[in-house]
Amino acid sequence: MAVTDHVDLDTFMAGVKKRNPGQTEFIQAVQEVAQDVYGFIDDKEEYHAAQILRRIAEPDRVVSFRVCWEDDNHNIRVQRGWRVQNNNAIGPYKGGIRFHPSVTESVLKFLAFEQTFKNSLTGLPMGGGKGGSNFNPRGKSDSEVMRFCQAFMTELYRHIGPDTDVPAGDIGVGGREIGYMFGQYKRITNRWEGVLTGKAIEFGGSQMRPEATGYGAVYFLQNMLKHKGEDVEGKTAVISGSGNVATHAAEKITQLGGKVLTLSDSGGFIHDPDGITQEKIDWIKHLKTVKRGRISEYCDEFSGASYHEGDRPWGVKCDLALPCATQNELNEDEAKTLVENGVQGVSEGANMPTTLEGVHVFHDAKIMYGPGKAANAGGVAVSGLEMSQNSERISWNQERLGDMLTELMEGIHDKCVEYGDDGTGHVDYVKGANIAGFKKVADAMLAFGVV
Ligand SMILES: NC(=O)C1=CN([C@@H]2O[C@H](COP(=O)(O)OP(=O)(O)OC[C@H]3O[C@@H](n4cnc5c(N)ncnc54)[C@H](OP(=O)(O)O)[C@@H]3O)[C@@H](O)[C@H]2O)C=CC1
Ligand SMILES: O=C(O)CCC(=O)C(=O)O
């Protein structure tokens, strides 16, 4: 292969910024990966010559479309929908759908880029994609949500398929929304096929998928602690969010003998010094998925807890921290506070919840820090197992899937150690995840030639 001029990291990032003006989240995600991958490929001419990182940082395609629906008052509403298909070198595009007013093309491009590395880390054959809309499900009736989901799928269906692109849930998209979208896909195509994951058990869903991301993030933490001869038992944990990932992370921490002190939503956080027990977690699940209420209501139900309006939970002293709400929800100052308060481990249930500056704080303090692309990969891993079950027209039981999830998370942890151990016993899990995730995708791309 001809030797090419190597573009250095700064020049590479300048190009990314120029080609993606104003897309701050996407640029942040590429920067975080590029700084590690550049070190790894320094002496590997084949990756430079084939422009592998440049190609992964340019989505295969971004589909943008209008979603038009009617609200309960017969007003016509218009939203924008997207599907970002980032890379399908190692399998069909795979990644969730997000419904939230903060959704932009930049947010979905960062998520699809991250997903490419995350899915590679699972070891399963899945490429990276992500989709969504700026639709806000909060305050909408069930009928409105149904009509929106149907309108969204009426366009999306032509871009997806069980061997092409398999979406799932994410923020604002849970079992209810997946059901509405799957029903519409089936109606339009007249085909029952595993085109979405996160389905209910009755129509092809997998045991353990609802639990998988939150449980997986705790298993990852457990593996990091074990690597240092430690355990979750007896430790306090601060968790943000109160959705699918946060409540299941809280559940697993509790099951393992830890004490969960906080949960939050976009309004503020609750602090319960007595610990958020399983009974309280069940109450929150019902509040969020059935009543669709606010976390502040917790304090009306359980005495001894306090609500902190407009604040995030990172100032509460803890041993373990699990950001499980959204991107950039933990900044440099909050990372410093966690470190000063003696945090030992951070495991990201959310995608890119820590700002780049915050990541540097954790890195410099050498604490155990599991980045989202590794720590929260349990969800998409069980989605991959749902795809396998759908293809084979079978369903595996809870015990088998629970064991597979545990093994998958251990495997991801070990890959991070393989590429992230700095030789002194400290593991840089960011570096490990970035390099291990990159290598598999890059080697597949090299095999395909210039496509
Ligand atoms: N579901 C899954 O399987 C996976 C999810 N993830 C990631 O985990 C995170 C949470 O997802 P999930 O639990 O599924 O989503 P949910 O919609 O179930 O819950 C999201 C939670 O985060 C809060 N939140 C959302 N946006 C903001 C914001 N801008 N500021 C503060 N809080 C906010 C929500 O509060 P409110 O109700 O007030 O909006 C809610 O408590 C996301 O980063 C997602 O990408 C990663 C892997 C898989
Ligand atoms: O289960 C899936 O396919 C997607 C999960 C997801 O969106 C994520 O890992 O961020």
UniProtKB/TrEMBL annotation:
Catalytic activity as recorded in UniProt = L-glutamate + NADP(+) + H2O = 2-oxoglutarate + NH4(+) + NADPH + H(+)
Gene Ontology terms describing biological process: glutamate biosynthetic process
Amino-acid positions noted as binding substrate in the UniProt annotation, renumbered to this chain: 94, 115, 118, 169, 383
- GO terms for molecular function, please? glutamate dehydrogenase (NADP+) activity; nucleotide binding
Active-site residues, as the UniProt record annotates them: 130
The residue ranges crossing the membrane are none
Q: Where is each Glutamate/phenylalanine/leucine/valine/L-tryptophan dehydrogenase C-terminal domain found?
A: 206-449
Q: Which domain of life is it from?
A: Bacteria
Q: Where does NAD(+) bind?
A: 213, 244
What is the documented function of this protein?
Catalyzes the reversible oxidative deamination of glutamate to alpha-ketoglutarate and ammonia.
Q: How does it assemble?
A: Homohexamer.
* PANTHER family with a match to the protein in the record: NADP-SPECIFIC GLUTAMATE DEHYDROGENASE 1-RELATED (PTHR43571:SF1)
What protein is this chain from? Glutamate dehydrogenase
